[in-house]
Structures are given as structure tokens and as C-alpha cells.
Amino acid sequence: MKLDVIKLDGGNAGSIDLDEALFGLEPRADILHRVVRWQRAKAQAGTHSVLGKSDVSYSTKKIYRQKGTGGARHGSKKAPIFRHGGVYKGPTPRSHAHDLPKKFRALGLRHALSAKAKAGELIILDTAALAEAKTAQLAKVAKELGWKRVLIIDGADLNENFVKAARNIETIDVLPSIGANVYDILKRDQLVITKAGVEALEARLK
């Protein structure tokens, strides 16, 4: 697969041959769904917590005598049926993470890259570097290039000025190649990868 390479000023920087094993697959929604679900579950805090019957602060004295009241028998005001009582089988802090094989996660990333390539939402950039960390300058470049909601993946080392300029632009995310993941790729309208990023991804996923 061959794609044109562009510069930040909109000029042409030649073309690049992309590996079909990374960018030429037929995207499968079931694989992407499983990987995204694994990512979101792993990121879930799992800190939800409620007070059970044994956690509620209340007297342990029997609330009224066992017999002769004409009502139900009760021994504790902490019971879930009473107001301010404990919650029965409520949520407790736990991890929502589940296992997913490493090879399957890599396969999901290949399918995410292929999905963007097939949809025509993949852009190859020569380099993601700025002489000055100017947010207005990068915002102008993005507007001229027609970037709306983009994820930019660079090589192992990010240009500090570029990262600082993109930090205050809500519609631009910048990641090193090692941070490339299925969820971030799919949630953005366009995927921009630098030539260094392409080389790093090919080395990582081969």
C-alpha cells in the first residue's frame, strides 16, 4: 500500500510504502470491540463502595421485644429493610480488569490501523516538529490541513515544542509510538502518523 507523505505546511514530501500486514487487513468489528472493552475495563477505577449491615454505625440493641408486638420479629436496626440500614450485596471496591492475550491485543491494533486506512482517514506526516511552542500556530496548521479531531502518533521521541503547542488544543492528541492503542485511534476522526511513527509501529507489531 502506497500513501503520499505531507509536510506541516501542506507541501508534498514524497510517498511511503505501508506494510499490508498492518494497514491492509479487512477490519473486524468483533476484534476491535474485544480490545476496546479490555482497555476500558482495565481503566475503570472500581472504587465504588457502600455500607453493608456490618458497616453501618448504629446500636446493636434489640429494637423491641421478640413477642407481643403484633409485628415482624427484628433484632437490628441495621437491616437493609430499615431506613439508614446497610445495603444488601452492594458494590465493593474491586478490579474490573480481565485478561486478553498479548497477541490478540497486537492484532486489534493492526485492525485499528487498517480500519483508518480503509476509511481514508489515515494521513502520513513527514515530521511533527515546530520551531516554537505556539498553540495558535499549530491550530492554524490543523485548520489549513483540514484536521478536525486527530490523533498524531510519532516515533519514540516526541518534539517538545509540538507537544506543548498541542496541549491546549482539545481536538489534537499526540502519542509516542509505544502509546498507540486501539481506543484512542478509533475515537478520533483522523489518524496522523509520522514517518518515524510508521517505522516504530512496524518494528513493534512485526
TrEMBL record:
InterPro entries linked to this entry: Ribosomal_uL4 (IPR002136), Ribosomal_uL4-like (IPR013005), Ribosomal_uL4_dom_sf (IPR023574)
Gene Ontology MF annotations: rRNA binding; structural constituent of ribosome
Record keywords, A-Z: Ribonucleoprotein, Ribosomal protein, RNA-binding, rRNA-binding
GO BP terms in the entry: translation
GO cellular component: ribonucleoprotein complex; ribosome
Transmembrane segments: none
SUPFAM superfamilies, alphabetized: Ribosomal protein L4
NCBIfam families the UniProt entry points to: rplD_bact
Subunit and partners: Part of the 50S ribosomal subunit.
Free-text function comment from the UniProt entry: One of the primary rRNA binding proteins, this protein initially binds near the 5'-end of the 23S rRNA. It is important during the early stages of 50S assembly. It makes multiple contacts with different domains of the 23S rRNA in the assembled 50S subunit and ribosome.
Recorded family membership: Belongs to the universal ribosomal protein uL4 family.
Protein name, as recorded: Large ribosomal subunit protein uL4
